[in-house]
Write a structure and sequence with these properties.
With 477 residues, this protein is α+β, with helices and mostly antiparallel strands. Helices cover 24% and strands 18% of the residues. The radius of gyration is 22 Å and the shape is globular. Keywords: Heme, Iron, Metal-binding, Oxidoreductase, Peroxidase.
Length: 477
């Protein structure tokens, strides 16, 4: 079904940081830099120095791109007034490492924040640096090193990241196929409502799926005497600090590649059976072709396929198991909690996110062919995914998916199953989530004892401001 939408608001690309509309695929080398400041005034001076480097969405840089985001402790460190700090969402203010948020996210056991490499201690801001090659990146890093030393800004973590062969992730599967389309970014108003979304789902200052302006932080008019910020569309006495910004969720997820494939081979038998089992857990074959369309073997012509559903094509999960990773993170048109296909579509649509992360670490096999990975010994290197998503509502979008779909052990009528790929597989606590159910006729097959194939190594919630908001923060923090 195709529906016509009237695009009412043109995006102010010159005021939006570029990551919200671009992936910077032409800048394959990158580093994510986590900082804390030692003096508010000097840190603000540092921010003012990098402001000219911040790349807006209106530009497609050929050499490098800079993006910046702040934690709530970072904004407090910059001495924003309480009236402004209090206007942010509860989730952002509490932070990802808050004990209650960890319970919601399933960040317990070996995922708990006291095991993390970063994120359990206060961080102030994140700088994302993208470059065309390593030489350009090192040039940018040298400039930033000098700048941070003169401004008393401490680099806590420098996380290298890049792109892998064939748009794959470290387990050897094509990644990032299902990406939401922002309606205001395209000229054609005839858009599929299952894959296109109003800008307000991902960018503050625009209408969302509820036909409301996305919730955003505000500034009392008296605290913006120079009118650097636009007026808030719903609260005339407030200025809109969030306009053209969003929240950025960052989680470093280590992938235990050797453990993953060893489990598949031990459980399934030979290499082909191991790949078939792993594909059942993911919901796609390694080349990206979806099991719902080609359940018995991959079809290269469908490697980019995203125009499929589950309600009519695979309601019972006989092709793609109900607990598969792609069905949990994007149930599309089938949720057992909803009575109709339409209700399922609408529910799933309310919890989409813009994913912008990248892998890190060397691949276990250069071309990430599962057959080759199966034959490769564990080299001891750390590898994984820097998961980054952009949302306007942390709780409705990211936390809902993580709590209700990724880690909930009774998702889709299951019993003891978490997401087989990224879920926390409890084995010795008051609930078990270490099973994976494969619907088969007449009796389903249940695998148990799944270890954690991914482990959280760090994480934080950030505010990703618009350009005008950045100028306000740097001048008035």
């Amino acid at each position: 079904m195709v529906t016509k939408y009237l695009i009412m608001n043109k995006l102010e690309k010159e005021d939006i940081q570029g990551l919200l509309v671009r992936g910077y695929g032409n800048l394959p080398t990158a580093r994510y830099l986590l900082y804390t400041g030692t003096d508010p005034g000097m840190t603000l001076a540092f921010i003012r120095e990098i402001l000219p480097k911040i790349t807006p969405a209106s530009e497609k840089p050929a050499s490098e791109a800079f993006q910046v985001a702040f934690t709530h402790p970072g904004l407090a460190f910059l001495q924003l007034p309480d009236a402004v700090l209090d206007s942010f969402s509860r989730e952002f203010k509490e932070g990802m490492n808050d004990i209650h948020r960890q319970l919601i996210l399933g960040d317990t056991g070996e995922h708990a924040s006291h095991h993390w490499n970063w994120g359990d201690e206060p961080l102030h801001f994140l700088l994302l640096v993208y470059a065309k090659d390593e030489q350009q990146l090192e040039k940018s890093m040298a400039w930033l090193d000098g700048l941070s030393q003169t401004h008393g800004v401490q680099l806590k973590q420098a996380l290298p990241t890049g792109l892998l062969y064939g748009q794959k992730e470290h387990f050897g599967f094509r990644d990032d196929i299902s990406r939401p389309i922002i309606r205001e970014l395209v000229g054609n108003t005839e858009l599929d409502p299952e894959t296109s979304f109003p800008a307000g789902e991902f960018i503050m200052g625009y209408k969302n799926l509820y036909d409301e302006f996305a919730p955003a932080p505000t500034v009392p008019q008296a605290l913006d005497p120079q009118n650097k910020l636009p007026p808030h569309p719903d609260y005339g006495e407030q200025r809109d600090l969030g306009k053209n910004g969003c929240y950025l969720v960052f989680r470093q997820m280590e992938q235990r590649v050797s453990d993953f494939w060893q489990y598949m081979k031990t459980t399934a038998g030979d290499a082909d059976a191991a790949i078939a089992l792993a594909s059942k857990m993911v919901g796609r074959w390694p080349d990206g072709s979806p099991l719902t369309r080609c359940p018995t073997q991959p079809d290269p012509s469908l490697s980019d396929a995203n125009d499929f559903g589950f309600w009519e094509e695979d309601k019972a999960g006989l092709k793609c198991p109900i607990g598969a990773h792609i069905r949990r993170t994007n149930p599309r048109d089938h949720l057992v909690t909803e009575r109709t296909q339409k209700d399922s579509r609408e529910m799933a649509a309310k919890h989409r996110m813009l994913r912008k992360g990248r892998p890190y670490g060397p691949p276990l096999s250069p071309e990430l062919d599962p057959h080759a990975i199966l034959q490769s010994p564990d080299d001891g290197s750390e590898r994984g995914l820097h998961f980054i998503c952009l949302v306007t509502d942390i709780r409705r979008q990211f936390e809902f998916v993580q709590n209700n779909w990724v880690n909930f052990h009774k998702f889709g009528g299951l019993e003891n199953d978490a997401d087989p790929i990224i879920g926390n597989h409890y084995q010795n606590e008051r609930r078990k989530t270490d099973s994976f159910s494969i619907p088969e006729y007449p009796v389903r097959k249940v695998l148990s004892g799944l270890p954690n194939f991914t482990v959280l190594k760090g994480g934080a919630y950030f505010f990703f401001p618009g350009i005008r908001a950045l100028h306000y923060l740097s001048a008035n923090g």
